[in-house]
């Protein structure tokens, strides 16, 4: 029985082995048959924001959009779409549902999984909510959650249910209608509101709590929510690193502290700078405003090295289920920072090539030819995800399968050919 062997087995929890039995359309095992086995997808969520593709998905492509999409799809299998309430519903009762549904559908057609970000957040709350009573704000917020989760069910079934709850009741940087509601209700009630309404709208949804505050305050909040009986499906951890790479020791500390809850960890907002680093004295990243923030050759080399270190550290930790990078290109990047994997002109930085070397290199089974044994079997050893098995020579046919943990045997039937 010949074997297909993954090129990197150092991440044992990301790898599985199965005995694959190949059966012909007539029901008999295909003995002594040459087949090509190729990986088609990762089970792990390698994600990026999909904000740049709303125009393309809605039939309004801008110059370079198609090339940008091709680069994006080379690496990523999950897209985070923007549901910032102020932008999603600029006037009461007129949400951008159609436009975002078309974007979600475009990604789904490419085989990309989707997440919505966020359902509840104080920042970018609608200005038209200011002046309303807390009772009215709560009513509208509940309705907004139910509407979005219902309207996108089946397309988007993963959501950041509530974003930055640690600071939400005491936020002072901008007047908004959600902070007074959070101060009135308290953090626990706000979390119950967000998760409860979303869960009622889509019981099968995966719902995250998400925060940039990775201190003990966030840990204590999660403890309180879980002890109250609130069901949280995954913990979101933001790691924007405009002031420099956190390093393996800091990441290990974060992983240790948040793994104790026994929930999947999603690194929801990751960024690394390929230019001059933001000064250390800046507390709020939004406060750093410069006329120009260019990518540099030195910074690009540093970004590539740190990106590999970041991803390898996280993927090596079994509770981590997703990493979402915050942007594909420097063109229109968040805060104007050179955090993209592509330069503003669309050319790939070393970080793009380095990440591709992991996702589609070290952590990928390249097309491999094997021959089945007398029982029509071969051994598939590879990274968790989707595979295609294709019979070679004569009447070719192929079949898709999923390599998952704990599945020791796969019986695959090749379709009949003309």
Concise account of the structure shown:
With 418 residues, the protein is of the alpha/beta class. Helices cover 31% and strands 23% of the residues. Helix 5 (134-151) crosses helix 6 (178-185), helix 5 (134-151) packs parallel to helix 7 (187-201) and helix 9 (248-259) runs parallel beside helix 10 (297-315).
Structure description:
The protein is an alpha/beta fold and 418 residues long. 31% of the residues lie in helices and 23% in strands. It is built from eleven helices and 16 strands. It has helices spanning 54-57, 65-75, 85-88, 97-109, 134-151, 178-185, 187-201, 216-227, 248-259, 297-315, 350-362, and strands at 3-5, 15-23, 34-39, 45-49, 78-82, 113-117, 158-163, 206-211, 234-241, 265-272, 320-325, 368-371, 377-383, 385-391, 398-403, 409-413. The strands form three sheets. Strands 6-5-4-11-10-9-8-7 form an eight-stranded parallel β-sheet, with helices on one face. A four-stranded mixed β-sheet has the order 1-13-2-16, with no helix packed on it. It has a four-stranded antiparallel β-sheet with strand order 12-3-14-15, with no helix packed on it. Helix 9 (248-259) packs parallel to helix 10. 37% of the residues are buried. The model has no long low-confidence stretch (mean pLDDT 96).
């Amino acid at each position: 029985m010949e074997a297909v062997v993954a090129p990197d087995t150092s991440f044992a929890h990301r790898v599985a082995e199965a005995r694959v039995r190949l059966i012909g359309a007539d029901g008999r095992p295909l003995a002594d048959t040459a087949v090509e086995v190729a990986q088609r997808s990762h089970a792990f969520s390698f994600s990026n924001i999909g904000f740049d593709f709303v125009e393309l998905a809605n039939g309004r492509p801008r110059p370079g959009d198609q090339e940008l999409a091709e680069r994006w799809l080379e690496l990523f299998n999950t897209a985070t779409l923007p549901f910032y309430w102020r932008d999603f519903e600029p006037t009461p009762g007129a949400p951008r549902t159609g436009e975002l549904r078309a974007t979600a559908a475009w990604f789904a057609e490419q085989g990309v999984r989707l997440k919505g970000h966020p359902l509840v957040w104080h920042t970018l709350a609608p200005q038209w909510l200011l002046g309303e009573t807390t009772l009215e704000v709560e009513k509208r917020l509940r309705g907004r959650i139910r509407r979005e989760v219902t309207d996108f069910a089946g397309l988007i079934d993963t959501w950041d249910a509530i974003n930055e709850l640690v600071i939400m009741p005491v936020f002072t940087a901008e007047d908004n209608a959600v902070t007074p509601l959070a101060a009135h209700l308290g953090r626990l009630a706000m979390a119950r509101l967000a998760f409860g309404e979303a869960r009622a709208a889509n019981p099968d949804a995966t719902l995250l709590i998400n925060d940039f505050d990775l201190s003990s305050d966030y840990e204590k909040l999660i403890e309180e929510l879980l002890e109250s009986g609130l069901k949280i499906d995954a913990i979101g951890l933001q790691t924007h690193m405009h002031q420099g790479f956190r390093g393996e020791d800091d990441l290990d500390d974060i992983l240790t502290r948040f793994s104790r809850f026994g929930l999947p960890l999603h690194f929801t907002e990751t960024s690394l700078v390929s230019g001059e680093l933001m000064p250390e004295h800046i507390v709020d990243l939004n406060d750093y405003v410069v006329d120009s923030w260019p990518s540099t050759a030195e910074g690009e080399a540093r970004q590539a090295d740190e990106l590999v270190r970041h991803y390898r550290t996280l993927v090596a930790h079994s509770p981590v289920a997703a990493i979402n990078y915050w942007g594909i290109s420097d063109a229109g990047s968040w805060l104007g920072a050179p955090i993209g994997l592509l330069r503003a002109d669309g050319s790939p930085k070393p970080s793009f090539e380095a990440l591709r070397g992991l996702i589609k290199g070290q952590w990928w089974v390249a097309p491999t030819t094997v021959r089945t044994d007398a029982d029509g079997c071969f051994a598939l050893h590879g990274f968790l995800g989707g595979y295609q098995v294709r019979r070679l020579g004569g009447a070719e046919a192929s079949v898709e399968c999923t390599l998952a943990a704990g599945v020791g045997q796969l019986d695959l039937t090749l379709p009949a050919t003309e």
